[in-house]
Amino acid sequence: MRFARYLCLYWALLAVAPAATAAVGEVMLLGPKLDVRAFGAIGDGRTDDTAAFQAALDDAAKAGGGVVTATRGNYLIKGHLTIGRDVALEGIATVPTAWSQNQGTTLLAVADKGKAEGEPLIRLASHNATLKGVTIYYPDQDHNAEQPTPYAWTIRCDGADNVSIVDVLLVNPYQAISLVGAGRHYVRNVYGHPLYRGLYVDQIYDVGRVENVHFWPFSGGWTGERPRDKWINDNAIAFEFGRTDWQYVLNTFCFGYKVGYRFFRSGKGSANGNFSGIGADRCVYGLLVEDCELFGLLITNGEFVGNWGPDANGMKVAPTNRGVVQLQNCAFWGSSNRIATIEGSGTVTFNACNFMQWDKHNRGEPALWANGGRVTLSGCNFTWQGDTNKQH
Length: 392
Hints:
Layout: H1 2-16, E1 22-24, E2 27-29, E3 33-35, E4 44-48, H2 50-62, E5 66-69, E6 73-77, E7 81-83, E8 87-90, E9 105-109, E10 122-124, E11 130-132, E12 135-137, E13 153-158, E14 164-170, E15 175-180, E16 186-192, E17 197-202, E18 209-215, H3 227-235, E19 237-241, E20 244-255, E21 259-263, E22 271-281, E23 285-289, E24 297-300, E25 303-305, E26 313-317, E27 324-328, E28 331-333, E29 338-342, E30 347-351, E31 354-356, E32 368-370, E33 374-378, E34 381-383
Parallel strand pairs: 3-5, 4-6, 5-8, 6-9, 7-10, 8-11, 9-12, 10-13, 11-14, 12-14, 13-15, 14-16, 15-17, 16-18, 17-19, 18-20, 19-21, 20-22, 21-23, 22-24, 22-25, 23-26, 24-27, 25-28, 26-29, 27-30, 28-31, 29-32, 30-33, 31-34
Antiparallel strand pairs: 1-2
Pfam family, one: Pect-lyase_RHGA_epim
Keywords: Signal
Protein name: Rhamnogalacturonase A/B/Epimerase-like pectate lyase domain-containing protein
């Protein structure tokens, strides 16, 4: 009976309560949401919508947080956007999309053409800032050029925790995502074709998560013969991890880069973490370990496919490495020179891995070449063109 009385009182209060909407300037706050069109955004691909977007984002931040929505449209952004504390900028996508430029919620980025340094297109400026459900496209990037046109980072965070990037397509950024000092970052369902640098992570002191990221030629296809394709394969890096503690990476893929996954020592240290279901196809180095922590890189269910480069290796461990790399149930194949080149003073372990198709130039190269550190192999399979007796 007491519960019934409380329930009746609740509904009575609800019936007489004022509406939850409140005016913000001339704009109505619908629950937690603001619409950029109410701030003057047009979305016709010709009118600069930077000021309208930023006004909505600023009002949401002043209100203590909220969601800024952008419906279907091509929103020309001639400047830069800042997403503040507890604010989310959301488009209409609820899954990662492909070839959706000029469809859905598309931001057309044109600022600072030719400048690799400078302000990012979107800055995740404070804790809990979120970007979700948008496509970002650089219309002035010519995929038939000999090499990509430089731009600054598309999305960047410097020193804010719990930032999120979800359900985003980055069609053709020169530099896609930089997360520095972004503890507990969350990157999920991000597709794209970064032309020079993909995801850069450093100075992470609490567990960051990266899931379902797919870097593939969404920006105009790939032949391997066009000058731009070759430039990317000679210069670009898909994933880079400097100092990051307990990094979690799940179900990621990249195609056609010089380096698939680079692990390096920054001024703050190097990486350790859990990397499961990661893949690199047509990369000169699927894995490049310049250095990592003694706690180890724990790599499980990885797939690494070589390319035509004269120094192609599924995995290369540099002389500078001092840490531990452990690979479990991974596969290496494709037209590689070697499966792995291992140097340094660290420890590398392969357990139940599958090695195929090395020595593509028939020069007598071994599958594994070690000149330093400690190497352990257990239960691995070596097969070269169906020949299990090939030198390895």
